[in-house]
Amino acid sequence: MVYAVEMNVKIPESWSEKKLADYLAREKETSQKWQESGKWIYLWRVAGQYANVSIIEADSPEEFHQIISSLPLFPYMDIKVKSLCKHPNAIRESLI
Amino acid sequence: MVYAVEMNVKIPESWSEKKLADYLAREKETSQKWQESGKWIYLWRVAGQYANVSIIEADSPEEFHQIISSLPLFPYMDIKVKSLCKHPNAIRESLI
Amino acid sequence: MVYAVEMNVKIPESWSEKKLADYLAREKETSQKWQESGKWIYLWRVAGQYANVSIIEADSPEEFHQIISSLPLFPYMDIKVKSLCKHPNAIRESLI
Amino acid sequence: MVYAVEMNVKIPESWSEKKLADYLAREKETSQKWQESGKWIYLWRVAGQYANVSIIEADSPEEFHQIISSLPLFPYMDIKVKSLCKHPNAIRESLI
Amino acid sequence: MVYAVEMNVKIPESWSEKKLADYLAREKETSQKWQESGKWIYLWRVAGQYANVSIIEADSPEEFHQIISSLPLFPYMDIKVKSLCKHPNAIRESLI
Amino acid sequence: MVYAVEMNVKIPESWSEKKLADYLAREKETSQKWQESGKWIYLWRVAGQYANVSIIEADSPEEFHQIISSLPLFPYMDIKVKSLCKHPNAIRESLI
Amino acid sequence: MVYAVEMNVKIPESWSEKKLADYLAREKETSQKWQESGKWIYLWRVAGQYANVSIIEADSPEEFHQIISSLPLFPYMDIKVKSLCKHPNAIRESLI
Amino acid sequence: MVYAVEMNVKIPESWSEKKLADYLAREKETSQKWQESGKWIYLWRVAGQYANVSIIEADSPEEFHQIISSLPLFPYMDIKVKSLCKHPNAIRESLI
Amino acid sequence: MVYAVEMNVKIPESWSEKKLADYLAREKETSQKWQESGKWIYLWRVAGQYANVSIIEADSPEEFHQIISSLPLFPYMDIKVKSLCKHPNAIRESLI
Amino acid sequence: MVYAVEMNVKIPESWSEKKLADYLAREKETSQKWQESGKWIYLWRVAGQYANVSIIEADSPEEFHQIISSLPLFPYMDIKVKSLCKHPNAIRESLI
């Protein structure tokens, strides 16, 4: 099943630069691990914003949540989720 | 350039069923023409809502607007647009 | 998979009482068909509002959308959808 | 009486990891105590979000409030509450 | 149990003055019937707005919903509901 | 004159438990002083939320503001105020 | 007592030009009657919007509501009301 | 003085195509008259939306309002206005 | 030109009482200097809220911004601005 | 391609004055570098708010994001982005 996700990062203002850099490095590592697994299909930056739009394909809602919640910045993001399905006007056979 | 678009359809309550059916038929035809052109890359239904999430690649903002505004229901939709670009953590070379 | 759905009905003001009564009768028939199928597990009225909270279990996002979009008032409702999964603190083994 | 509750956790950014872990442990313990009592009937994670949807049955609004406000993270959550009642289209005799 | 309710009336623009006057007369009759029953305890106008704040005491969420949904303008109001309980700082023994 | 007030407390996350306890004790003392004066007529907890609904009768907007702003947590609350007056459908002669 | 009011006019789209012109003429007449009475102290247009900001002084919330609700477009406006009082930093002795 | 304006057109659903076409033609004529006068400096379409962003320079708030309110669709648009001034970091001497 | 301004103060929770008192004293001094200059015409407290409504007359948007941004709490307030002009129904010749 | 951008600065309350002054100095330097490059065409202060409206012309969404994200306060701003294109009623041949 496929989800469209919008993540807006709210950088904690009280963190030291070192703590933030550490989080960002682990964030990158985690998101790339999931991209390499083939489940995190698209990861786009929203131009001009500290935000991304992602398209994630998972075997279940549980797996989808496992992916998102493994991100170190998960507790500090404002996240919007849309569960997707086939549109009657779509000409593509599969979702992805 | 790539845009993520969210369209929420607000069906006018005063339209006859015939007028609505006519609009929906032309909406389908128009969206499929753009999908066949290769520019409207993904058209997904948001599960449980009269809404879609679309990924559209256009040569310019003008062409992107031409695609969206050619939809017969364009004046009756609530539309959110996000201009996308490469995310520093993305492993994919190109956007699509 | 399980979805929590909130539906707010926006009764079209220009409809005749006859047209509205017809829609409401078909709405009831459709929602009961799905409840009898075992997929629409809970249908609650929000006390004091023209709204419901529902818990729906479907085999796929497509089936979930088929259930919701089969409601005659579907185009005239404001619908919020949450895809659910197991909570780490839940003591119940299954979702339902 | 039955309530549908949505809790969005806003993790305080200035807390140490130790303080947060302590809160989360007590949060788990408290919510499980209420689940075991039979009053906190469903506790679901919203897929992809630091949020839950819960269905709670209480003898009174006072008891319902006692349950929610006993959670250690209660002052740090954004909480939405809906008081539920029987829907005229529901085929189930009781609410739960 | 006690509920605080806020009702904002959205007068349908397409109604004739006669239809509207008929609805308003029945609205008045219905709300006064409930006030006389002792269940609709307070009915206040919000100064400067087509809105009211009400305090309603009912035996159950079902009865509360029965009261609100019996109002002829129920489908054309934007309604906010708060279920109330005793505040730890309140000096009054009972809610009302 | 009568006001309906909704106060949502936003507990500052960086406060020590001691500082918070001190504020809460003074908050209780202040609100009870006003209740005993007969001006703060109702103080209800919103079930499931760190919020209250209050009905306050004051001689003037100045006195009403004096009451609310004397609360130690005043700068840390999100407050909504409604000035009330007699509803044409109300059967009660006075507001309170 | 003094109120700051913001009125946003939502012109009903289905009204004939004649009906609308009639309403606007009576709206003007009513607001000018209240201005001449000295109670509607300021009536300003918000530059670029179909909206006004008004400062109204009334003897009571009831009289304030009588003024606003006497406007023919009252049911078709989105109205925000603020009850004002003396600011501790104000150098002016009286409110107006 | 310079204003940034965002206009979102809400096409009335009940209008005939002829009435709408007439309004749109007069809208174009009016906006072009003001552009030719040199006061409506920029008129941009927001890509993918029935909306525009405009930069308007007027001699006074009154003249600015005269420009916007002369548009035939003025009562049917959702309009946001920002009054602009020189930014301390701007290198350009004048606003335009 | 005249502006209506709404300022909501968000007291930083981490400030010491001394730092806050210092800011508040300088805030008072600054706002009174502008009131004495005749440009800050009205400064009202919104009853029951840590907010004010102000009417400010300035020679230009630049001067208006100079007034507001000179307030020490300027970076910690949520500010809404409305540029005002003459209302066609106003009987008063001038704005103030 | 041209973007309209609205940036609302949320000054972190816990920063020292020295840290803030350092950020503001680097913010100025960065924005002026981009203005001198000819890409950041307009930078306006919104009168009365800690916000700006900017018009930026970039070769691609990537370049646009590079400009915005190079600002030191980028993680602490609330940013709204609109991708612009030619309006059918515009008389100007080019966007800028």
Automatic annotation (TrEMBL), chains A, B, C, D, E, F, G, H, I, J:
Q: Name one Pfam family in it.
A: MIase
Q: Say yes or no: keyword Isomerase present.
A: yes
Top EC category? isomerase
**Hydrolase: is it a keyword of this entry?**
no
Instruction: Quote the SUPFAM superfamilies the UniProt record gives.
Output: Dimeric alpha+beta barrel
Q: Which UniProt keywords apply?
A: Aromatic hydrocarbons catabolism, Isomerase
Q: Give the highest taxon in the source lineage.
A: Bacteria
Q: Annotated Gene Ontology MF terms?
A: muconolactone delta-isomerase activity
One of its GO biological process terms is: beta-ketoadipate pathway
Residue ranges of domain Muconolactone isomerase in the record = 1-89
What this protein catalyses is:
(S)-muconolactone = (4,5-dihydro-5-oxofuran-2-yl)-acetate
Q: Which InterPro entries match?
A: Dimeric_a/b-barrel, MLI_dom, Muconolactone_d_Isoase
Q: What is its EC number?
A: 5.3.3.4
Q: Provide the assembly information.
A: Homodecamer.
Its family remark reads: Belongs to the muconolactone Delta-isomerase family.
The protein's name: Muconolactone Delta-isomerase
* Origin species: Sphingobacterium lactis
Tell me the organism's taxonomic lineage.
Bacteria, Pseudomonadati, Bacteroidota, Sphingobacteriia, Sphingobacteriales
